[in-house]
Amino acid sequence: MKNRLSHRLQNISYSQTLAMSSKARELKNKGYDIINLSLGEPNFYPPDFVLDAAKKAIDEGYHYYTPVSGYLELRETICKKFFRDNGLKYLPYQIVVSTGGKQSIMNVLLSLLNRNDEVIIPAPYWVSYYQMVKLCEASPVIIPTTMETNFKIHPKQLEEAITHQTKLFIFSTPCNPTGSVYSYEELKSLAEIFKKYPKIIILSDEIYEHICYEEKHTSIAIFPDIHNQVITLNGLSKAFSMTGWRIGYIGAPEWIAKSCDKIQGQITSCANSIAQRAAISALQASPMEIEYMINEFKKRRDLVLEMIKEINGFQISKPHGAFYVFPNVSDLFGKKFDGRVIQNSDDLSDFLLEKAQVATVSGSAFGDKDGLRISYASTENKIIEALTRIKKTLM
Fold first, then answer.
1. Contact between 50 and 278 (Cβ < 8 Å)
2. In terms of Cα–Cα distance, which of 214, 197, 206 is closest to 162?
3. Percentage helix, strand, coil for the chain under 3-state DSSP, each rounded to 5
4. Is beta strand 358-359 parallel, antiparallel or unpaired with respect to 361-362?
5. What Enzyme Commission number does this protein have (predicted)?
6. Which of 72, 121, 295, 336 has the smallest number of CB atoms closer than 10 Å to its CB?
7. Distance between CA atoms of 246 and 235, rounded to whole angstroms?
């Protein structure tokens, strides 16, 4: 039956984060005491004012199709949010609201990419960037980074990766999976390269923008010379703990926004109407309203950093944003535990699920075979128990 599937489908892999979470869920349903640290899903409920806005929207009858790009009031609110939080000026016709950040990204890629176009992606990268590019029959060009550079690229690396076929650059700051955050000066240096190549579009994934610990988030679109090259991506899943509500959005040059509206109109039409009304309330609120979540994530990060120091074979750098750690675990490769030789990070992730009953995600899913992604979006008690199990399993 496989040969009856499209070559596009055969060219991509399943999401390893979702696959690991599914495997963990199946084991849990069978009675195993699984702690799932594989998904980037905050354990908080959305803020009460967001829940109240959704209930009000139901009572007021917001049950029907909305404009494809979202309610005008929501797009106006997003424009105000971009200016308030990021110093970016967008108009409502430059905003497209989608069914989650994933659809926002796919809209952009389908709008821009042709076969054999090149897309530059720093690694480690969010798991779906690579597969989405392949689905569009374009070519991912990976720039590797290391723990020594805090998993960030240098301008020289960027320029060396650019060819006449380069169409797009995709990155996230704060980064999933490493938690690295590009500073203003680092982004300015990258912008100096991009302004020499005005045909290259930059897709800046900023969904973790509020989850920064040591420094304030900077949007690369803030630099005037490249503003019209940048698509700024954001959403409500992470900072507002609204993962299942599925609201993502972009601010983009008008021609790109119109193209995304066209694509979306043929695929899903509008995002959920009730979730859109709740999103208005969320984005109108001051970021201070969610500071309690950020403070808790920082506390968990510091706990994880302390506990991981005691785990055999884990080398780690300090993440400055998001809610993941990405230790290098290559020191464990070739070693035997409980009669099993760990060959790579895929082996290690499977072993930890089987023996420690802790779900993590192999670094190979993120373009770094030496890493392992651990989410600390769970509760403190579960994090302590999970890391204690991992430590004992690898002794």
1. yes
2. 197
3. 45, 15, 40
4. unpaired
5. 2.6.1.-
6. 336
7. 8
Do 278 and 54 form a contact (C-beta atoms < 8 A)? yes
CB–CB of 189/364 below 8 Å? no
What's the average model confidence in pLDDT over 109-123? Answer: 97
Residues 6+ apart with CB under 8 A from 356: 386, 389, 390, 392, 393
Which has the closest alpha carbon to 206: 241, 162, 171?
171
Taking the C-alpha atoms of residue 346 and residue 336, their distance in angstroms, rounded to an integer, is: 15
> Has residue 21 got a pLDDT over 80?
no
CB proximity list for 390: less than 8 A, separation 6 or greater: 311, 352, 356, 358
d(C-alpha 345, C-alpha 246), whole Å:
31
45-103 per-position pLDDT tens digit: 999 999 999 999 999 999 999 999 999 999 999 999 999 999 999 999 999 999 999 99
Number of H helices, E strands in the chain: 13, 14
Ranges of each domain in the chain:
2-45+290-393, 48-289
Query: Which pLDDT does position 10 carry in this prediction?
Result: 86
What residues contact 383, with CB distance under 8 A and at least 6 apart? 37, 300, 303, 304, 307, 376
CATH of domain 48-289: 3.40.640.10
What pLDDT was estimated at residue 1? 64
pLDDT at 30: 85
Residues 236-240 have a mean pLDDT of: 97
AA identity, residue 18: L
From 219, 185, 220, select the one nearest 200 (Cα to Cα): 220
Give the predicted TM-score (pTM) of the model: 0.96
Fold classified for 2-45+290-393: Aspartate Aminotransferase, domain 1 (3.90.1150)
The helix/strand/coil state of 251 is strand
For 241, what's the count of Cα atoms within 13 Å in the CB-facing half-sphere?
19
Cα dist from 366 to 74, 130, 137, 160, 261, whole Å: 33, 9, 19, 22, 29
